UniProtKB/TrEMBL annotation:
Domain AMP-dependent synthetase/ligase intervals: 14-382
Entry-linked Gene3D superfamilies: 3.30.300.30, N-terminal domain of ligase-like
Superkingdom of source: Bacteria
UniProtKB keywords: Ligase
Protein name: Long-chain-fatty-acid--CoA ligase
Entry keyword Ribosomal protein: no
Length: 527
């Protein structure tokens, strides 16, 4: 069995893997294959060049790149330097870019010319005039006057002597990851080297990963799911990674077959699209061994199909950006019911408790807010002391804002977000419970339940449903389907059939946007 090590910095985790087998391939991103030795050299060249640009310990590097090998190089260069990466969502618009750069105080920014129709070079060039801290923009895979190219930095670094910075894993921040903003203004969660390294290592260990494993990384690398249980976990087990910059189900299925992928991490939407692809049965997925499904509520039926149809012993995990993220996970030996209906038990070394509104622990099976503490909990929100104080309380407990239950065996069930709970005529409705039922219907592809204002009941519930291609679904049919499974007050008052649901880049349904959209439509109907 592969031996894992804890209490390391991010750079030390990578160095350990590099020294084990320098000639082993570590990255394939469909444009380049890199060995551990090539990645070791290139990341240190980049670190040396950045130091020549006066980047030192604690300085912020904004990184707006898709799943390319250059992202991993910058990730490691920052780790060697003691600099802090500030990953930027590649879908950000101008005001979002300026907010992140300003709030973080980024000194250097890495960006593409454009990606998925978003003009990153123009965005960052314009932002440079607005953000006093931003000294330099590094162009990746393009050249532009006034910017310094990634390749030029690599060449420059080859001629510089580089000595890595001394890192204190538990104190030094490695990344500032901004929350998606689905519930308001983004907050920058400061994650230390220890947060990332420990969580990524224990995630790999929970999946029983070894050097033979090949990770498919289709979740965005700017998201904590890409940063920790994907990239870091690959290094923790000295494995390899296949980076996918633009998700397409068929491409992913082809890569699993071609590269003999063994670990497939992803959000439920990815697996749903793969399972429902018309050519699904034609691909050889026999190499698949396991993977984490997380970052959004996971429908029961999807877990069962991944295990039976993909032959993948998937584990279900739960966590947040603020917990680095993996906090709980199911076990390989858990049965289908446990794996489908819970997010497993808390990982060793972390603690979880379920509390009432007064923050008093509740009994087994009682719904309350999930609070946690341990190795993955962030240092705090950057430049937001009040928000930090509101989230992290006495003795290091972080209050998640998630509603959950814990049974006598320690298995945790996520019920939903406190802010998403619908109070209809005095009755509490948890959207996730209804969404799970909707996903169990054979005609439903995706679904979300939100609350809408009502003058009589205070709130009513509305289900937005995306029907599978080629299927038809009537309101009365789905209404009766839900009614047969739950109390009548939980049946949505309204049903809306949509072609698409608003999504974040990490695969979460943007419920605030959906709620506003439905609210506007409802108001228009009443006019």
């Amino acid at each position: 069995m592969y031996k894992y090590e804890y209490d390391l910095s991010v750079a030390q985790v990578f160095e350990r893997a590099y020294k084990r087998n320098p000639a082993k391939e570590v990255i394939f991103d469909r444009t380049r294959r890199m060995t551990y030795e090539e990645l070791w050299n290139e990341s240190r060249y980049m670190a040396a060049a950045l130091r020549d640009l006066n980047v030192g310990k604690g300085d912020k590097l904004a990184v707006c790149l898709p799943n390319w090998h250059e992202f991993v190089v910058v990730y490691l260069a920052a780790a060697f330097l003691g600099a802090v990466i500030v990953p930027c969502n590649t879908r950000y618009q101008q005001h979002e870019v300026e907010y992140i750069l300003t709030n973080s105080g980024a000194k250097i920014a890495f960006c593409t010319k454009e990606f998925s129709g978003v003009p990153h070079a123009d965005q960052f060039t314009q932002a440079k005039n607005m953000v006093n801290s931003l000294n330099q923009i590094v162009s990746v895979r393009f050249e532009q006057e006034g910017l310094i190219s990634y390749q030029r930095l690599i060449e420059r670094g080859k001629n510089s002597l580089f000595v890595p910075e001394d890192i204190q894993p538990k104190d030094d921040v490695f990344a500032i990851l901004y929350t998606s903003g689905t519930t308001g203004r983004p907050k920058g969660a400061m994650l230390t080297h220890s947060n990332i390294a420990h969580t990524g290592t224990i995630s790999a260990e929970a999946m029983k990963c070894a050097p033979e494993d090949v990770f498919l990384i289709a979740v965005p690398v700017f998201h904590v799911f890409g940063i920790t249980p994907s990239i870091l976990s690959t290094f923790a087990c000295a494995g390899s990674m296949v980076l996918v910059d633009q998700y397409k189900a068929k491409d992913v299925l082809e890569l699993i077959q071609q590269e003999r992928v063994t670990v497939h991490n992803g959000v439920p939407t990815m697996f749903i699209l793969e399972l429902n692809h018309p050519d699904f049965a034609s691909f050889d997925l026999s190499s698949l061994r396991t993977g984490i499904i997380a970052a959004a509520p996971c429908p029961v039926e999807v877990v069962k199909r991944i295990r039976s149809e993909m032959g993948c012993n998937i584990v279900v995990a739960y966590g947040l950006t603020e917990t680095s993220p993996t906090l709980t996970i199911t076990d390989f030996n858990d049965d289908d019911m446990i794996r489908s209906e819970t997010v497993g038990k808390v990982l060793p070394g972390a603690e979880v408790k379920i509390v009432d509104p007064r923050r008093v622990p509740v009994g087994p099976g009682v719904v309350g807010e999930l609070a946690c503490r341990g190795f993955g909990v962030m240092k705090g929100y950057y430049n937001m002391p009040e928000a930090t104080q509101a989230a992290i309380h006495q003795e290091g407990w972080f209050y998640s804002g998630d509603l959950a239950t814990m049974d006598e065996q320690g298995y945790i069930r996520i019920v939903g977000r406190i802010k998403e709970m619908i109070i209809r005529g005095g009755y509490n409705i948890y959207p996730r419970e209804i969404e799970e039922i909707l996903y169990g219907h054979p005609s439903v592809m995706e679904a979300a339940v939100v609350g809408l204002p009502d003058t009589v009941l205070g709130e009513i519930s509305c289900a937005a449903i995306r029907v599978r291609s080629g299927e038809q679904l009537q309101t009365e049919e789905i209404k009766n389907y839900i009614k047969s499974k739950v109390a009548d007050y939980k049946v949505p008052d309204k049903f809306v059939f949509v072609d698409a649901l608003p999504m974040t880049a990490s695969g979460k349904i943007k419920k605030i946007d959906l709620q506003q959209q439905l609210k506007t439509e409802l108001e228009d109907q009443l006019r």
